[in-house]
Specification:
This protein is mainly beta. 14% of the residues lie in helices and 36% in strands. It folds into three domains: 1-26 and 142-255 and 388-416, Nuclear Transport Factor 2, Chain: A; 53-118, Nuclear Transport Factor 2, Chain: A (Roll); 267-383, Glucose Permease (Domain IIA), CATH 2.70.70.10. The strands form five sheets. Strands 12, 15, 17, 18, 19, 21, 23 and 24 form an eight-stranded antiparallel sheet that branches. A six-stranded antiparallel sheet has the order 1-7-8-9-10-11. Strands 2-3-4-5-6 form a five-stranded antiparallel sheet, covered by helices on one side.
Length: 416
C-alpha cells in the first residue's frame, strides 16, 4: 500500500458541555493498561507505608491466577483463603491484568494484594491475621471532558483518526474509530465506501482515570462527508435511560439491514470480476469477501428465516437466510454454525449465526457474502445502500430539535 499523502491539519478542541456530561457509561475493559514492571523490581507506591515493599506484576498469557499469586509469595496454604476472599472467577480473568503486592519484605507472604480489575475498579485483598483474609472494592474517579476531532480520510477511518486525534492514546483512537463505524454502520460501509478526501468531525466525551488511563465515553454528535454528501447524527435521550442516534431529519440511524456481516471487517475483494484463487480461471465473483481471523463471529444483516445451513460445494459450510421483500443473504466458507442455527430457524438482525473459516474453495480464513434480490445476485454495496430508519414520534420533535441545535453548534463548522 502506498504511503498516505500529507493530511489536512486538523484541530482538537476542548468544548464546554457540562450539561451533556452529567452521566457516563458503565466502565468498559480498559484501553490503556499500564506496562508491567520487571517482576524482580520492588517499587514504593505513593501513599504506602515506608515499611512495606511493593511490587507490580501482570498476569501472563496462558498463566493461571494461582501461578501469578504463587510467584508473588502466596503460599499453598494461604491460596484458597486469598481466592475465597477475592471471590474472583479465575477463568474470567484476562491476561494482562496488573496486580500490586505489598509485603513486609521482599519474598515475604503478602500483606495486601490489589487486583486492577479495570481502570476505575480496584479489589483490595488484605491479610488481617496469620490465616485471615478480607477484601474491599475501591472505585477510582474519572474526569470527563468533551472534545471535537476532525480530519480528512486518505486511506481509511483508522488512519484518519490516528492522524488527527493525537490527544488520545492510540488504543483510544481505535476505539473511537469503531464507535463511529458502529453508529454509521446502517448508512456507510466503512471498509469500502470511504474515498480519499472524505471528511469526518466528531464530538465526544473523553474519560481520564486517576492513573492516567483514557477511554472514550459517549459520542454526542458526528458528521461524515462522503463524496460530497453530508450525513449528520446526534445522540438523543429518549427517556427512561434510553438513548439512540438520529440523523438531522429525525430518522433513526438504525435501519432494516446492516451494511456488512462482520462488525470488525476488512475486505479482500469486491463485487465484480476476479481470478478465482483456487480454480485459476476468471469468473464473476458474485459477492464480497471479508478477510478476518478464523472464528470471528458472523452476523446476519437483517431479520429473517434460515433456509439452508449445511455444506454446499465450493461454498463449504454455507448459511442462507430469507429476508422480507424477496431478499436472500448467503454466508460461505464458515468454520461452523452458531448453536441452534438450522433450516427453519428465525434470526434477528445482528445475531451471530456462524464463524469465519476456510471451508470449501478458500485459500485462507474469510467470509464470502452474497445478496440475492428476487433470485438474482446483486452487488451488496448497491442493494443495501439507500436505507432509512424510523422517524421520531411527533411528540419528541421539539425536544429533539433543541438537542440537535445545541449539539450541532458544539460540533462546529462543516470543514476541518
Amino acid at each position: 500500500m502506498k504511503k498516505p499523502t500529507p493530511r489536512t491539519v486538523t484541530t482538537v478542541v476542548a468544548v464546554a458541555l457540562a450539561a451533556w456530561a452529567l452521566s457516563v457509561d458503565l466502565p468498559k475493559p480498559w484501553l490503556d493498561a499500564p506496562h508491567p514492571v520487571d517482576a524482580s523490581t520492588l517499587t514504593p507506591v505513593a501513599g504506602d507505608s515506608d515499611s512495606l515493599a511493593t511490587v507490580r506484576d501482570t498476569l501472563h498469557s496462558g498463566e493461571t491466577l494461582g501461578a501469578l499469586l504463587s510467584r508473588r509469595g502466596v503460599t499453598s496454604e494461604a491460596m484458597p483463603r486469598v481466592m475465597d476472599a477475592s471471590a474472583l472467577d479465575a477463568r474470567r480473568i484476562a491476561a494482562g491484568m496488573p496486580i500490586t503486592v505489598r509485603s513486609d519484605s521482599a519474598g515475604a507472604t503478602p500483606r495486601e494484594i490489589v487486583f486492577h480489575l479495570a481502570p476505575d475498579r480496584l479489589l483490595h485483598v488484605r491479610r488481617t491475621g496469620d490465616s485471615t483474609w478480607t477484601s474491599s472494592e475501591e472505585r477510582l474517579p474519572w474526569v470527563t471532558d468533551t472534545l471535537v476531532v476532525s480530519g480528512r480520510i486518505e486511506e481509511n477511518l483508522y488512519q484518519a483518526l490516528d492522524d488527527s486525534a493525537t490527544v488520545l492514546p492510540r488504543s483510544a483512537r481505535a476505539e473511537l474509530a469503531w464507535t463511529l463505524a458502529d453508529i454509521f454502520e446502517y448508512r456507510v460501509d466503512m471498509s469500502r465506501e470511504l474515498q480519499p478526501g472524505d471528511a469526518f468531525r466528531v464530538l465526544f466525551e473523553r474519560l481520564v482515570g486517576a492513573n492516567g488511563q483514557t477511554k472514550i465515553g459517549r459520542v454526542l454528535a458526528a458528521r461524515m462527508v462522503l463524496s460530497g454528501a453530508t450525513t449528520e447524527t446526534v445522540r438523543f435521550d429518549e427517556g427512561d435511560g434510553r438513548a439512540a442516534y438520529f440523523d438531522a431529519t429525525g430518522r433513526s440511524m438504525q435501519a432494516a439491514f446492516l451494511r456488512a456481516p462482520l462488525a470488525f471487517r476488512r475486505i479482500s475483494s469486491v463485487f465484480g470480476l476476479r481470478k478465482h484463487p483456487i480454480l485459476g480461471i476468471w469468473r464473476r465473483h458474485e459477492g464480497t469477501d471479508y478477510v478476518a481471523n478464523a472464528g470471528t463471529p458472523v452476523r446476519t444483516i437483517g431479520d429473517g428465516t434460515v433456509t439452508f445451513a449445511g455444506v454446499r460445494g465450493g461454498y463449504g459450510n454455507l448459511i442462507e437466510i430469507r429476508h422480507r421483500n424477496g431478499l436472500v443473504s448467503r454466508y460461505g466458507h464458515l468454520r461452523g454454525f452458531a448453536p441452534g442455527i438450522r433450516a427453519g430457524r428465525s434470526v434477528t438482525i445482528g445475531q451471530t449465526i456462524g464463524f469465519v473459516g476456510m471451508t470449501g474453495l478458500a485459500t485462507g480464513p474469510h467470509l464470502h457474502f452474497e445478496l440475492l434480490v428476487d433470485g438474482a445476485q446483486r452487488d451488496p454495496s448497491v442493494a443495501l445502500k439507500k436505507v432509512a430508519g424510523v422517524p421520531l414520534a411527533p411528540a419528541d420533535r421539539p425536544r429533539f430539535d433543541a438537542q440537535l441545535s445545541a449539539l450541532l453548534a458544539s460540533l462546529g463548522k462543516a470543514h476541518a
